[in-house]
């Protein structure tokens, strides 16, 4: 049977692997040797799952959105990752990786962040476990996700504003890798998405797979069947999508629809639609689709959403797209904004700008009335209120 999981060499089809500088070789090898052993151990599983339950508030609800369903002519369930402690799915991964770091004897934690949700999640877990935490964040994102910067500081993390490139997620990741190269022995790098060298994409997907594990159980309770017709999620690096689809990857009854950030439009030069625009290349230690020019120079991406503003994509998702297991749609800024206001006014849920891209893809699919759709709301929109308010009059009529 065809499988979409990682192979023993760390590849998903043509994508993945670990393309790292010599100085990080030992750290990445150590991680590779340990992550499965630790993640599968009873002791880790018990601590991880009790924190997910008692600290994060899992399982997150699977909510039948009746008015949204009427609008799109099908049955839409929302997987409410926005209701997790700290406001997004990122906390699932942060808890898992910090628990692993502790077991590997690491004392210092570093992370990159775009929208600030992964930074907040990592700072939160470090506060809980009494560990030092440094978060790299592009200066553009520091400004557009100000509330999350303040949360990280309150939690005791040091936030380093990065001023290279266009000062967004790619640049923050570059700086985090540079820090890791300077402190390879005592520092653990908590990557926030299914990107980076193997084993990160697989490890992050496994830690987030609690999402699809819960969807299976919850759908069974609600609908008497454990699979939907469609699974939908947004993709920046790909972690909420990986978690949403993990237990359905090989179930061909389930259609996978992923939404990437079209920005101002895929053809405008102001876009982060990596699957549509990217070519095979290497970014942050992984062979994947990368937005690049003819000389292989990485192109600066653009999206209204800091969490999707990235010129690469997880190798798992590059493989799912190139093997046609997943349909990837580009959703532009204006479509995401419209979808965010629609959800807010129909269901009373303010989604994160990232999640709004998944919602924006609903209008691009022709559903049948009996189609069962599960869409992951990866985070809540509190951090995006300033941006939303700028567009209030344009997208609402009352
Ligand atoms: C709420 C939310 N959703 C989605 C993403 C995109 O990341 P990923 O593709 O790893 O889920 C982010 C990234 O910051 C985010 O904050």
Summarize the structure.
By secondary structure, the chain is of the alpha/beta class. Helices cover 42% and strands 18% of the residues. Pyridoxal-5'-phosphate binds at residues 88, 114-115, 117-118, 193, 234-241, 307-308, 352, 354-355, 378-379.
How would you describe this structure to a colleague?
It catalyses: (1S,2R)-1-C-(indol-3-yl)glycerol 3-phosphate + L-serine = D-glyceraldehyde 3-phosphate + L-tryptophan + H2O. With 398 residues, this protein is of the alpha/beta class. The protein folds into 2 domains: 13-51 and 90-203, Rossmann fold, CATH 3.40.50.1100; 57-87 and 209-396, Rossmann fold. The protein has helices at residues 25-40, 42-56, 66-72, 90-103, 117-129, 139-144, 146-154, 169-182, 200-208, 210-223, 239-245, 274-277, 315-322, 333-347, 353-360, 385-390, 392-395; strands at 11-12, 15-16, 62-64, 75-80, 108-113, 132-138, 158-162, 187-190, 230-234, 255-263, 279-283, 286-290, 326-332, 372-377. A hairpin with a 2-residue loop joins strand 1 (11-12) and strand 2 (15-16). The radius of gyration is 19 Å and the shape is globular. Bound molecules: pyridoxal-5'-phosphate. Pyridoxal-5'-phosphate is lined by residues 88, 114-115, 117-118, 193, 234-241, 307-308, 352, 354-355, 378-379.
């Amino acid at each position: 049977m065809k499988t979409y999981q990682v192979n023993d060499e760390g590849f998903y089809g043509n994508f993945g692997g670990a393309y790292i500088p010599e100085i990080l070789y030992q750290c990445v090898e150590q991680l590779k040797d340990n992550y499965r052993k630790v993640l599968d151990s009873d002791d880790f599983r018990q601590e991880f799952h009790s924190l997910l339950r008692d600290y994060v508030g899992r399982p997150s609800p699977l909510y039948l959105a009746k008015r949204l369903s009427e609008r799109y002519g099908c049955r839409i369930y929302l997987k409410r990752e926005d209701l997790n402690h700290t406001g997004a799915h990122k906390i699932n991964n942060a808890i898992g990786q910090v628990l692993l770091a502790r077991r590997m004897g690491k004392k210092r934690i570093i992370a990159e962040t775009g929208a600030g949700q992964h930074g907040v999640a990592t700072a939160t877990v470090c506060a809980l476990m009494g560990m030092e935490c440094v978060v790299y964040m592009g200066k553009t994102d520091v400004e557009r996700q100000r509330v999350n910067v303040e949360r990280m500081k309150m939690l005791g993390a040091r936030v380093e504003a990065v001023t290279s490139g266009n000062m967004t997620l790619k640049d923050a990741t570059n700086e985090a890798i540079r820090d890791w190269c300077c402190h390879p022995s005592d520092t653990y790098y908590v990557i926030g998405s299914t990107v980076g060298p193997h084993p990160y994409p697989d490890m992050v997907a496994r830690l987030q797979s609690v999402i699809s594990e819960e969807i299976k159980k919850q759908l069974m309770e609600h609908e008497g069947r454990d699979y939907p017709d469609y699974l939908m999620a947004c993709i920046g690096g790909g972690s909420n999508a990986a978690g949403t689809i993990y237990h359905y990857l090989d179930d061909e009854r389930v259609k996978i629809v992923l939404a990437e950030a079209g920005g101002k439009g895929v053809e405008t030069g102001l876009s982060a639609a990596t699957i549509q625009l990217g070519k095979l290349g290497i970014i942050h230690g992984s062979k994947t689709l990368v937005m690049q020019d003819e000389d292989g120079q990485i192109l600066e991406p653009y999206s209204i959403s800091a969490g999707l503003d990235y010129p690469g994509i997880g190798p798992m998702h590059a493989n799912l797209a190139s093997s046609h297991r997943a349909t990837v749609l580009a959703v532009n800024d204006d479509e995401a904004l419209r979808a965010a206001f629609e959800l807010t006014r129909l269901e009373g849920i303010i989604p994160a700008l990232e999640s709004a891209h998944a919602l924006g893809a609903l209008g691009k699919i022709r559903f049948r009335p009996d189609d069962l759709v599960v869409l992951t709301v990866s985070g809540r929109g509190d951090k995006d209120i300033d941006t939303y308010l700028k567009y209030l009059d344009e997208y609402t009529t009352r």
